[in-house]
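[09:14] KT: can someone run the structure on this one? pasting the chain below
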Amino acid sequence: MRAVLDTTVWCSAFLSRNEKSAARRIWNAWRNGLFIAVVSGPIVDEVAHVLLEELGVPEADVDEFVALLCAVADVIPIKHQVMGCRDRNDDAFLETAVVGAANYVVTHDEDLLALPASVKDYLRGRGVEVWADARAGERDFCDVLRDAEASTEVS
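[09:31] RB: done, structure tokens below
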């Protein structure tokens, strides 16, 4: 399973110490090899920027995280194509998913969760689904991970 995580998911996962939080469960699943994270330069840059500039994480910690991310994730080059997002910055997540053959884009971002039908159809045609990381009352990426964990325990 391959997944593109949006900036809020990466930052929440990095900062969370609550093992029961969705962000931490996703982080642990990634670190335990349950899925392959797919990233591109613009995603890594945005995550580093938000951690440093908006959240005040020390530079050494951000550098260490970026090094881990680039070493463990599948880093994909993209061409900065327009993908149809309301927020043009979100196009990088969709393009990374398509080029990187990801199964999922995982997000908190309402702009990504409320994509136009034509964009959703385009993504589905390439095997990509956009899922919330955790969403009360709806199936979410944490449910997908739970199912994957259960199937590996049975095997």
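[09:33] KT: thanks! Strands lie at 2-5, 36-39, 74-75, 104-107, 129-132.
[09:34] RB: yep, looked fine to me
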